[in-house]
Every structure is written in C-alpha cells, then in structure tokens.
Amino acid sequence: MARLTPKILNLSDGERHQLQQLVNRHNTPQQISLRAKIILMAFDGQNHREIARSLDINRQMARFWRNRWLETDSKDLSIIQRLQDLERVGAPVKFSMEQVIELFALACSPPEDYGRPISHWTPRELADEIRKQGIIESISVRHVGRLLEEAQLKPHQSRYWLTPPP
What is the pTM assigned to this prediction? Predict the structure, then answer.
C-alpha cells in the first residue's frame, strides 16, 4: 500500500517569524505554542509521525493542525486566530433575557410584597416565587443562585429601597 505524504505547507517569512515568536514567548498559552511548533515542523518538511514523536503527541493531532492551517490559509485571520480552537456550540439558552431580568427585579423587591413571611430572598424562595408567578416553568435553586452571583446581586444583604429605613 502506498504511503500518502502530507500536504505541502508553505509559510511566508512573516508567518514563520510570528510563529517562532509565539513559540519563544514565555506568556504564550501552551496549546498555542504547541500548535505553532506543529506548523513550523510541518513547514520544515516533517511528516505527521515525525512531528508526533518529537512533540510527544499523536499523529492525528499533527494531521489536524496541519489541515486546519491549510484550510484557514485563504481566510483573513491572524496567526493566533488560526491556532485557536473554533467556537463550540453549547446547549441552547434556556431562559430569555426578559425572564432573567424579571428574576432580578423580583430579587430586588421586598418578599412581603408577594406574601412571603421572610425578611430577605433566598435562592430557594426566589425559585419558588418565579415558578409560582409563571415567569419560568422550571428552574433549579442552584441556577437561581448562579444567576444572582453572575449579576452580583445579593438579596440577602440588601436593604430594599421601597421599604423606609427603621
């Protein structure tokens, strides 16, 4: 069976210089540095097996980054963009921005306004009230806590501006 040689990889002097700078720089993330090394070694004519042995990686990784480099050659991307992972598609957004804003508005209002016999909202009470009002059909207590934390809202520490001071 004939062995397929990897595709030829051509670099301009500027690209080669920028890749070498990424490899030599101390603050380059390790993944980016490794990928730059793969491209430089491929440019020097090494095949996937040789690159894999030298860098202690598998051949598939060497092949992947050589092919990625070749695919992005015609695109208007910087060197660093060509060496970065592609954006990953995550799970779809579960709650709309309007629902989250309503949660925040609820967290900033006094619990007494909603017939709650508590002085401050907890994530459990907020999750219960937001489901009761039909704003969100289902939400976990932990998710409410995470949303409040991301927004840096602390209803358990706040004084409600609607309530006059004692």
Answer: 0.55
| 71 and 114 inside one domain | no
Q: Whose CA is closest to 66, among 44, 35, 88?
A: 35
Per-residue b or e along 131-148, where b marks 16 or more CB atoms closer than 10 Å to that residue's CB: eeeebbeebeeebbeebb
- Model confidence over 33-66: pLDDT tens digits? 999 999 999 999 999 999 999 999 999 999 999 9
CB within 8 Å of 150: residues ≥ 6 apart = none
- Return the residue matching tokens 């050589």: 66
- Same domain as 60, residue 33: yes
| Tens digit of each residue's pLDDT (9 = 90 or more) over 59-102 | 999 999 999 999 998 888 899 999 999 887 888 888 899 999 99
Contact between 59 and 49 under an 8 Å Cβ cutoff? The reply is yes
As a residue count, the chain comes to 166
Cα angle for residues 148, 153, 158 (degrees, 5° grid): 135
**Domains in the chain, number:** 2
In a domain, 165, yes or no: no
Residue-number span of the structural domain to which 70 is assigned: 13-83
6 part of a folded domain = no
- Rounded to the nearest 10 degrees, the angle between the axes of helix 30-43 and helix 48-55 is 140
